[in-house]
Amino acid sequence: MKIRIAIALAIMAATASPTFANSGMTPERSVLDRILQGHGKPGETATSVSNPAISYVVREDGKLVKTNTKFGTTEVVQPNWWFGMSPREREIRGLY
After folding, report:
1. 60 and 42 in contact (C-beta within 8 Å)?
2. What is the dihedral of CA 60, 90, 26, 67, to 10 degrees?
3. Calpha distance 46→21 (Å, rounded)
4. Structure pTM?
5. 3-state helix, strand, coil in the chain (%, to 5)
6. CA–CA distance from 96 to each of 56, 62, 75, 82, 86 (Å)?
7. Which of 2, 4, 28, 96 has its CA 20 to 30 A from that of 60?
8. Which residues contact 55 (CB under 8 A, 6 or more apart)?
9. How many other β-carbons are positioned within 10 Å of the β-carbon of residue 95?
10. Contact in structure between 69 and 55 (CB atoms under 8 Å)
């Protein structure tokens, strides 16, 4: 039984994608993912694939403008990485 488990694990390891552990860092990731993670350039835009009514634009200050054309709403949001930082870290980086 142990040999079967070892063989199964060896097969899984051999067939696993080499980018599995770094899936967020692959060059193929979408523009929307980059923008939401805070790596977008000012003026860069992206539209959601699952909900085409939602689009994002990167402002000069790094914040995102989220627009929902279905409901006619616009809001300014922070990239996702912002929420993992303490207020002190944001202040040191000049993000206030």
Report:
1. yes
2. -50
3. 25
4. 0.57
5. 35, 20, 45
6. 21, 11, 18, 11, 12
7. 28
8. 45, 46, 47, 48, 66, 67, 69
9. 14
10. yes
